[in-house]
Structure formats: C-alpha cells, structure tokens
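[09:14] KT: can someone run the structure on this one? pasting the chain below
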Amino acid sequence: MYKPPSVTSGFSQVERTKILGVTFTRKLSVSQHVDKLLATCSQSLFALSTLPQHGLPDDALRAVFQAIIINKLSYASPAWWGFTSADDRNCLETFLCRSAKLGYRANSSATFASRDQLNTRLSRNSQHLLHPLLPPEHEQHYSLRDQSHNYQLPDQSTLNDNNFIISMLYNY
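[09:31] RB: done, structure tokens below
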C-alpha cells in the first residue's frame, strides 16, 4: 500500500538563503549580504588604487569605479534596501563617502539615502516638477502607526509597474 510522505519530512529550516545573489536571513535581515558586498567592494577599491600607477587617467578611473563598484552596490538594491538596518545603511554611506574622498566619485553623486530624500522632497514640495505625477492623498480616520506617505496606492498593473513614481511609493 502506498503511503505518501509526510509534509514535515522533506523540509528543514535554514538560517539564510541566497535569492538572485542577495542573502536573506530567516529574520529577513540583509546584514550578511551588506557585509559581504562591502568586503568585495573594498577589495575592488584596493585594486582600483593600483590603476593610476599604470597610467590610467582620472576620468577613466571614475568610469571604472562606476562600472564595477557602483553597479555591484546597486544590484537589486530596491529589493533589499528595505530590509537594511540603520547600521547597514550607515556602512554603505560611509563606503561611498570614503570613495569620494579618494577621488573615485564626485561628492555630489547620488547615494542610497538620496532615493529616500527624493520621496520626501517630492511629497513636501507642491512646486516640484514631479509632484503632479503623485497619486491623490488618502485620508485615514484612525492612527495605528506612522506611515512613510499618505498617498492612495493604485492597484498593481503593468501600466503602474512602468511608472517610476508609483514604484518608488511601493518601495518606500
């Protein structure tokens, strides 16, 4: 007689999982991912420091920094940024500031925090160029907890998926 396997026999609890190169712990923390990311970027930063000695001009060095390190840091960042702790964010911003001091990027270049600042500036300034693209505000008659914004989020659709403002609100 056939006996189906029990549901619990084939599963085991894992401490962390890697999804498309991003490591999540079972508590939905990405601290291990950020630590490994910063370690590999620091190694790449050291490798970049040897390139000017071989005759690479400064503008080409900044282009290599953008192509290698910034792209590595920003890979899938909308997916994992919301799971970072304040310490993780501080470490990432510190790394970007250090690379600016070393001359690999401009001080005025965008950082991870600038994405959050864009949402804040956009929602508070009615004269902002992108403000008319925001959805209507949603009034709540109860107060459970602070929210990052008070806009009505439209239903997810392919049209809204392609809208930068709507996707920023969903991620924010």
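[09:33] KT: thanks! The helical segments are 31-50, 58-74, 77-80, 86-101, 112-124, 158-161, 164-171.
[09:34] RB: yep, looked fine to me
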